[in-house]
From TrEMBL, chain A:
Keywords: Molybdenum, Oxidoreductase. It holds the Pfam family Ald_Xan_dh_C. Its EC number is 1.17.1.4. The keyword Cytoplasm does not apply. Residues 15-122 form the Aldehyde oxidase/xanthine dehydrogenase a/b hammerhead domain. This is Xanthine dehydrogenase, molybdenum binding subunit. Transmembrane segments: none annotated. It is an enzyme of class 1 (oxidoreductase).
Automatic annotation (TrEMBL), chain B:
Residues 2-78 form the 2Fe-2S ferredoxin-type domain. CDD domains: fer2. Keywords: 2Fe-2S, Iron, Iron-sulfur, Metal-binding, Oxidoreductase. Pathway: Alkaloid degradation; nicotine degradation. It comes from Actinokineospora spheciospongiae. One of its GO terms (molecular function) is metal ion binding. Signal peptide: none annotated. It holds the Pfam family Fer2. Gene3D superfamilies: 3.10.20.30, [2Fe-2S]-binding domain. The keyword Metal-binding applies. The lineage of its organism: Bacteria, Bacillati, Actinomycetota, Actinomycetes, Pseudonocardiales. PANTHER family: OXIDOREDUCTASE WITH IRON-SULFUR SUBUNIT, OXIDOREDUCTASE, IRON-SULPHUR BINDING SUBUNIT-RELATED-RELATED. PROSITE patterns: 2FE2S_FER_1, 2FE2S_FER_2. This is Periplasmic aromatic aldehyde oxidoreductase, iron-sulfur subunit YagT. Coiled coil: none annotated.
Amino acid sequence: MTGARPRVDGPAKVTGAARYAAEWRAADLRHAALVTSPVPAATITAVDTSAAERVPGVVAVFTHHNAPRLRPPVGAPYGGRLPLQDNRVHYEGEPVAVVVAERLEQAREAVGLVRLDYAPLSAETDFRAVADTAVPTPPARWGPADTTVGDLAAGIAEADVVLRAEYSTAARHHSPIETSATQAEWRDGVLTLRDATQGVFNVHAVVSSALDLPADRVRVLAEYTGGGFGSKGYVWPHQVIAAMLARELGGALRLVLTRAQSFTSHGYQPPTRQRLVLAATAEGRFTAIRHDSLSPTSTYGEYVEMTANGSRVAYACPAITTTHRVAPVATVLPTPMRAPHEGPGMFALEVAVDEVACELGIDPLELRLRNHAEVDPTSGKPFSTKGLLACYAEGARRFGWADRPRATGSLREGDQLIGWGMATAVMATMRFPAAARARLHADGRVVVEAGCQEIGTGTYTIMPQLAAEVLGCPPEQVVLRLGDTALPRTGMTAGSSTTLSVGSAVTAAAEALAARLALLATGDPTAAVRLDGIELTVKNGAVEVFRLDELFARLGVDSVAAGGSWEPRENQRSMHTFGAVFAEVAVDVDLPVPRVRRLVAVYSAGRIVNPLTARGQMTGGLVWGIGQALLEKSTTDHRLGRFVDKNLAGYRLPVNADVPDLDVAFVEEYDPHASGIGARGIGELGSVGVAPAIANAVHHATGKRVRSLPIALEDLL
Amino acid sequence: MIPLVLRVNGREHRIEVEARVTLLDALRDVLHLTGTKKGCDRGECGACTVHVDGERINSCLALAVMQEGREVTTVEGVGTVGAPHPVQAAFVARDALQCGYCTPGQVMSAIACVREGHTGSDDEIREWMSGNLCRCAAYEQIVAAVRDAAEAHRA
């Protein structure tokens, strides 16, 4: 049942048959295009849309003067301001006008003819410049802003080595290849959205409340989403705009963000400034950890990058203090990006650990083993399951870590300085309530329904595997329907939560279906059932075989269905995934461009349902880590208050030639606490711990300690 | 509007487009061949890769009106769900895709890459497939799929 299974949506995706949000036909389809603010803060003083309106094919131009009024959205995270409601601009890239035309080219032409006058207001986009205005953050949705256990001063006082260092990570953009897009249709008082989203229920909540529509008059669909990585989790202004204008004009309307707009329309990973204090005895026992994080939020909303979350749980230490502060800047609201929180945070902690290892003359892996946390050092709770020691051992064996010479610069191949580094990966396990339905038809087809998304993680493939496991049938007999607010409710497909959360609900629904079939066939719901084609075998003392068509005809039904749900309850355990990442880099002595030559990573993440798609999640995550370490940086021109590289040439994504040999493995594990299926989350874990492993390898190669990401050539000159 | 005969996947389409319409937009919006994807609209991501007279190009950087008399091949023209091209089958077998949005462009590049003979080593494949971004980063699996397809092509 479960096991390596090629993705069932593969054939549709490789042939172009899979249909994404902006690819649905409608006879009356119109195209919308956004006009966005070129300045980060301003009052709009004049509007002239006459030239734009004269472009042939233009249907309407909307600004704050004539846009329909909206209500504050509720029920799901909304990352923008309500669009076109007032004359204020709060960030560069904020929508200030929308053109609707019969064809895309006409809309695009008219966008350039909309004239808006701005009276600029003072605006700061550099969070470091307003660090003194940073405030303690209220309890965030990912945990308290600050934590403290033990006596930090005492821990520092008893240490032999105290590292105090500052680390920083760059602003980054999600950059899914499908830009965000919404196709909205208003027909007979019902609004239907095809949306590029990671959560149809989020979009439904925001749109129905902002437009003041009854819930049953709005339906959101997303059969396929072309990547999200966090950018399509919250709801953003463009989705509200598409919905608002479809209702205003009637018929069908398509709004596709340009690539440049994708840099200002749905958040970004904020840059961080992280200060670490790491104290240890000469024997390599940590006595104090302090991790203070500063990151920007927007002037109109709050997002906290919880970078110190990992430091709360990573190592056994009697005194741990963490703080998070956010400083408001004039940008779009930052938002989670693969991997949020621990992604930037473990870079700082794990480089600090390497620095202390060097200072103490202790092997970096050995230092981590000496401080291995058996229980969560901040909450005191036991971990739900933790296989990190096995990750270290297996990773070190595969990598050949035992042969690593201690001294920096001691591995050299001709003009190439070679370095080996490693790091620990820790990621909090996010879980959402989920519901699912399973229906068996007389021809043997099992249709499982759950309103989650397929964003590339293999949901179409994995859920049928889980249902088939319960029903005893081949997975080919089961299909999943997803991405529709008419289906059972789930959380958004984000936070590495879908397989464990929705998978638990699907398993519960399949179990309920099995019990119902047993009851209908034999009168005993506890009898064991096994489905194979249209044969249902029921074992209740004796073994009876039923043909579904005959059984259903006798019962007078076409199909038999059952629902199941799951919600996270257990809170007596600390739930995290873990990994050990080992990196080899090469740095040319004359032109010191760091290149990754190989990565080895071993993970502890609970049960792995489909090793084939799971491997893709981890290798993809490793490449994200390479991007974070060496390539990705969104630079802001603080004089203009805008990102300068709003394209895929200036914003450097990893390409195929950047990818080295990747060796990925999982520890055999079943987590009985985290979910109903033994799984924890994996999608984001793979991108954690990679950047520090690479930075530590660069130090091993060159002797240069780089504390800011991405590591650039000029850092190594 | 300019009347135009576009030959796509062996079929002639008589359409009218403005001179400024790209081949990509003509394929997607006029011919409703949405297998060819728009990722950046400026030649940076490769999601819009199609073949024109057998050569791989970024269709977002080509004007539709300039393709008259040429043979355009899109992902819909190389294989179907029921009868996939060997490269398409290799992509599925090797799990060389995740969200699937860059995949048609990857497939069209891969078919050309195999035909061009730029498959002598994994490093050569990586280099010649680097015009197609995959943010899910299924790169290792894409190399394996291209390698498999190249071996089958040589055999």
